[in-house]
Design a protein that fits this description.
With 463 residues, this protein is mainly beta. The protein has a domain of 82 residues. 8% of the residues lie in helices and 59% in strands. It is built from three helices and 21 strands. The protein has an 18-stranded antiparallel β-barrel. A three-stranded antiparallel beta sheet has the order 1-3-2, covered by helices on one side. The radius of gyration is 25 Å and the shape is globular. The two termini are 23 Å apart. The N terminus is likely disordered.
Length: 463
């Protein structure tokens, strides 16, 4: 039976993506059993797909799918998801396929989108994505790539709508079994959280932050016990609108250290990091104490301890010092630490407990940095091989420290977060999920309290 699907393409990339996926999904292994696909793009950007197959899908069923997609899908990605729904099961990706494609959609209701203490504004948000994943082993080399195109659509606050593309790519290289390393790059694009970004001017309320990282590391271990480690990291972060508290910056870091591996699988690592960063401005702003750059030194120790076959303990402790080029008022230093405990008492139950204390730059009129202490627990229970329950509960305490233009007001924010979700995988490559999240912040400064509840549904497909 033949039928015709016609819809607008969200990006031209999707056409190229589908053309490439055609050769992967309908490859030589399925020449006799797989129907033919023809793809072409009309003069008005209409993506047409003619699928001649021995499938009994009626026009009534397609109409029902289209109606549902208008409620839950970003319209311009609907065509991709429709194509996925009718791909034969025998063409789905399996563990042997180095290249696979992913697609998904979610729908959320947020009762306090801007995280306000009063005059709350709710909204419904639809997010959709499509992308590719590559995991290829070639001799001693391994290549991994994840690339996604994303679309976010807000029902009421349409000014927040945005499109993005994210990726992470890694080359796990090996010259010899004794000399290995990683070459890595990633890009993340997202909307700045209204937890800290409080500029609600309609023309600047959509503040997109793009973070990029390039990293190289080498590991030399002549006997497989002691490891000599070295690396280089470049980070860059840019906001689409002014956000002084988390300013635009670029930094370069040199990393060096050693690691000792025990026969049990446990390990101890010592690392030193030397970072130099530059902010976007060329000259210091004396009126607001906004600097042009900084230097940062960090020394850290990490312990990975396999307590048993069912439990693992990760411990990190570090000392961090940051000095700014012009304004010493913005300098800070101190200890950091993190403890993670993972316990798997049965094949169905997993439990994670984390405690963390971290320093971070945060320029304000009455502060220069923050210290945040958090404690959280993350349980996961697999009811069956198709149904999984997840949960999270955490508390945090965030202190705003250091002086700015004015002496510190000793602002203190206390937050509580809790969430629960259930995932159902009726097929190996298809997952449906529902989740509920609630967060609350209490501050000793007026205007920073909030309560927020989010409920959402999502679907994802791997093929």
């Amino acid at each position: 039976m033949s039928y015709h699907i016609e819809s607008y393409c969200f990006f031209k990339f999707y056409k190229n993506l589908l053309m490439k996926l055609k050769s992967c999904l309908f490859n030589a292994r399925h020449k006799e059993s797989t129907p033919k696909i023809k793809l072409k793009v009309g003069s008005y950007g209409v993506c047409q797909k003619v699928y001649n197959a021995g499938l009994s899908v009626s026009s009534f069923q397609l109409n029902q799918i289209s109606k549902i997609s208008q409620l839950f899908f970003v319209k311009k990605i609907t065509s991709i998801l429709l194509i996925i729904l009718v791909i034969p099961l025998h063409s789905l990706a399996d563990e042997r396929d180095p290249l696979s494609a992913i697609a998904g959609v979610s729908r959320e209701y947020d009762n306090n989108l801007f995280l306000l203490e009063s005059n709350k504004k709710s909204d419904r948000v639809t997010k959709a994505y499509a992308g590719i994943q590559l995991d290829k082993l070639y001799s001693l080399q391994r290549f991994k790539v994840n690339y996604t195109l994303n679309a976010s659509r807000y029902e009421r606050n349409k000014r927040l709508n945005f499109n993005s593309h994210n990726y992470d790519a890694a080359w796990l290289w090996s010259l010899t079994p004794r000399l290995t390393g990683k070459l890595y790059a990633d890009r993340k694009e997202s909307l700045n959280s209204f937890q800290d970004f409080r500029n609600f001017n309609p023309s600047t309320i959509r503040n997109i932050r793009v973070s990029q990282t390039q990293h190289f590391e080498a590991d030399y271990s002549p006997h497989g016990v002691w490891h000599l480690l070295g690396g280089f990291t470049r980070n860059e972060a840019r906001n689409s609108e002014s956000f002084i508290q988390q300013d635009n910056l670029s930094s370069i870091a040199l990393d060096a250290g050693v690691r000792y591996d025990f026969r049990s699988g446990s390990s101890i690592l010592l690392m030193a990091h030397k970072r130099n960063g530059d902010f976007e401005r060329k000259t210091p702003n004396f009126a607001s104490l906004l600097d042009t750059g900084f230097s940062e030194n960090e020394a850290e120790a990490r312990l990975t301890w396999l307590l048993s076959g069912h439990s693992r303990l990760n411990v990190r402790t570090a000392y961090l010092r940051r000095n700014h080029d012009t304004f010493s008022q913005r300098d800070y230093s101190g200890m950091e630490g993190r403890v993670d405990y993972f316990w798997t008492p049965t094949s169905k139950l997993q439990l994670g407990v984390s405690a963390n204390s971290a320093l971070a730059s945060f320029w304000n009129i009455d502060s220069s940095y923050t210290r945040e202490n958090t404690l959280s627990i993350t349980p996961v229970y697999n009811i069956s091989d198709k149904i999984r329950l997840t949960g999270f509960a955490g508390i945090s305490e965030r202190r705003f420290l250091g002086d700015g233009l004015a002496p510190s007001t000793n602002r203190l924010d206390k937050a509580k977060n809790i969430s629960a979700g259930i995932d159902w995988s009726p097929l190996r490559n298809f997952t449906l999920g529902v989740d509920l999240r609630h967060s609350r912040r209490d501050s000793n400064v007026i205007g920073f309290d909030f309560n927020d509840t989010v409920v959402g549904v999502d679907a994802s497909f791997l093929f």
